[in-house]
Amino acid sequence: MKKILFVLLALFFLSIAGYQIIRYQYAPTYQGTINITGLEKVVEIYFDDFGIPHIYANNPADAYLALGYVHAQDRLFQMEMMRRVGSGTLSELLGEDLLDVDKFFRTLGIPKHATWSSELWLEEEESPWKDATNAYIKGVNQFIAEGNLPVEYTLLGASPREFTIQDVHSIIGYMSFTFAMAMKTDPLITKMYRTLDPAYLKVLSIHTLPEHHVIPNHYPDRIPETNSINIEETLTALLEKLPVPLLEGSNSWVIAPSRTASGEVLFLNDTHIGFAQPSVWYEAHIEYPGFSFYGNHLAGVPFGLVGHTRTHSVGLTMFENDDQDFFEEQINPSNPNQTIYNYGYTEIKRRTEFIPIKGKEPVTFEVKESIHGPIMNDVIPEIGRLTSNPVASWWVYTLEPTRALEATYKLAHSNSIQEVEEAVKLIHAPGLNVMYGDKSGNIAWWAAAKLPIRPEHVNSKIFLDGSSSKDEPIGWIPFEENPMAINPPSGFVASANNQPDTLANGIFFPGYYYPEDRWDRIAKTVSSRTDWDQENVKNLQLEAINENHPINALSMIEAVDPRLFEGFEAVQAALKSWDGSHDLENIAPTLYYKWLYHTLHGMMVDELGQEDFENFLRTFLYIRSVPNLIRTLDSPWWDNQSTEAIETRTEIIEEALKKSLKELKAQLGSNSSKWYWEKAVVLEHPHPLGAKKPLDRIFNVKAPSVPANEESVNKLAFELNDSGIYRVKSGPAMRIIIDFANVEASESVLPTGQSGNLFSPFYSDQAEMFVKGHYRPQLMNESMIKNTAKRKLVLKQLGTN
């Protein structure tokens, strides 16, 4: 026994020693002194209890070089994934499985656009944002050259190349793509238009319906500018291979002093992004003479897209505007290299793309472009199955080089609401709702996007005629006529990805907007009182209630024979009295979502097929159309086309209920009073390497169950399915609350942790806090930071004492 005990103890201590050796090789450096080149003076970096760097520098160049260094040591592999997605080079690192993803992004034109933007960037005159970006890139490269590279590179047998301005633009391009809902939606809607009777489409909310609430505009007084410029798998399966998350939606609201307890502006933002490890945002606090900023940064981007100074704050949500059209071209019968256009012909442009593949010979493939843009048939399977004609993507983002770096620099460095608006104007795509509040009591919301003017007859959700110019945009809406609200009389501004009201020019701009559920809940709650503060507003930000779902549930209950619930009276009663809450001990959501899936499946799969039905469930169209689909009595969707009989609403809903009760009984037991929502919900934050077992156990971050829901303020989204298990795919990527009565007491939380390095103590330390609805401080007070920080890193110029 003594020998066995000795061996076990020896193995225990050896494993600890081995771990410490590995950790020493790969962990970030949070304290001590590092000598690096390029600094003018010493930079001090204090890491708080959650690993947030507080950077104290004597000039901008040193500050951004330091930011690049610490950002890289915590998130270098995330930067690697982001730049490779945007540059179409995932296969080079991860292998042939990602080849289709590389082909897709190269065809779409993001790498080409990044090259264009970078070439123009290099030609630009020197500017503060250019100097800061170059310093940031130097800092990233200093870490690549001399720091502890993350363990992922060792496991992949690879090493990172230097970071470049093209990488920055590739990342910006990828993040812009994640907003392009048209690619997921327009082929499906076009198929419906071509194969179904118009009566089917009337039941869907392809366009915003009159009953949907809109974001009200409130334009400031000014002279408008003139309109001067004219102009074999599914895509979903392909995008699921991406090793980085997609942006999904967001909430933000800013409350004016007239509605707050402090008499100062109250600012909130929670961006909704696909859950992943690491999470999207990297927090950093930068101080140098004349500048103090606390920001949330994307991997590889030097300026915080969301952030605040002591005098103003900027946040974001997705605008969800329609900025991408698909043009179906006609080939010249006499020349396959030409398309028909305006009674003549235009040449199809071609370019050859060269894709390196890990462990294999490189692949070349041809990208074709019509007059309207790249032809997408070969990379979006839904398009290839729908038509043999070339279908080209016309996308606002690729029409002009991005000025995102200039815009985000100016948003952080602005000193007034007017300067912020000038920065917002620089964002042409993707469409963003920029939210604003300041110490002077101003609140604002701007829709930042270059909005095309389409001919009145155009339905931008279906493929357009590429053989003429009749469907093409005819100009651009001046920024001053974009949706916006500046200091509205309501005392708040809010955006939750829903439809903005009619613009100043009378246009009701089309998009992929979500219904009013979240915005309406925010608006009603904020309007109900005038004593909002940093504590009581948390209840709203964490609320998991949807008022629309109980109405759907009651309409389904009323449609069926109540005897079907015999033996399941507990869940029947819960569903009847449901207030839309998704608390973990609730049982109503457990039946509602299962029943809803089987009802929709019984209605739609005979018309759409299983594959397109599942595609439907992944689009904005599903969320927006459910109330009409469920409540419309005479909908043609109720009849099953595969049978001779004509099915009724009651038959479909009853059959769906029978299936649901049977499956839930098998899954959760016969006592429906114990069908707790908690048992049906799973949350795991996947790492890029976690797709391969057993690496998932090492790199993925598992979290306790969360109140998963569809379209509650605290949106924790999942894909509707028949399994009875709902894996939460996306949700708040941070939760920010700022009261301008005391900016230094602002709070936030991240879904997992600050660091993407497995050996960092900040890898997953916020995961449980996030689930439980806790917050942590966003420190800005210098004495508090320096007196309480347990870790201090000093950066010195190489060769100095």
Automatic annotation (TrEMBL):
<keyword id="KW-0106">Calcium</keyword>
<dbReference type="InterPro" id="IPR043146">
    <property type="entry name" value="Penicillin_amidase_N_B-knob"/>
</dbReference>
<keyword id="KW-0479">Metal-binding</keyword>
<dbReference type="GO" id="GO:0016811">
    <property type="term" value="F:hydrolase activity, acting on carbon-nitrogen (but not peptide) bonds, in linear amides"/>
</dbReference>
<keyword id="KW-0865">Zymogen</keyword>
<dbReference type="Pfam" id="PF01804">
    <property type="entry name" value="Penicil_amidase"/>
</dbReference>
<comment type="similarity">
    <text>Belongs to the peptidase S45 family.</text>
</comment>
<feature type="binding site">
    <location>
        <position position="325"/>
    </location>
    <ligand>
        <name>Ca(2+)</name>
    </ligand>
</feature>
<dbReference type="InterPro" id="IPR043147">
    <property type="entry name" value="Penicillin_amidase_A-knob"/>
</dbReference>
<dbReference type="GO" id="GO:0017000">
    <property type="term" value="P:antibiotic biosynthetic process"/>
</dbReference>
<dbReference type="InterPro" id="IPR014395">
    <property type="entry name" value="Pen/GL7ACA/AHL_acylase"/>
</dbReference>
<feature type="binding site">
    <location>
        <position position="322"/>
    </location>
    <ligand>
        <name>Ca(2+)</name>
    </ligand>
</feature>
<dbReference type="GO" id="GO:0046872">
    <property type="term" value="F:metal ion binding"/>
</dbReference>
<dbReference type="InterPro" id="IPR002692">
    <property type="entry name" value="S45"/>
</dbReference>
<protein>
    <submittedName>
        <fullName>Penicillin amidase</fullName>
    </submittedName>
</protein>
<keyword id="KW-0378">Hydrolase</keyword>
<feature type="active site" description="Nucleophile">
    <location>
        <position position="250"/>
    </location>
</feature>
<dbReference type="InterPro" id="IPR023343">
    <property type="entry name" value="Penicillin_amidase_dom1"/>
</dbReference>
<dbReference type="InterPro" id="IPR029055">
    <property type="entry name" value="Ntn_hydrolases_N"/>
</dbReference>
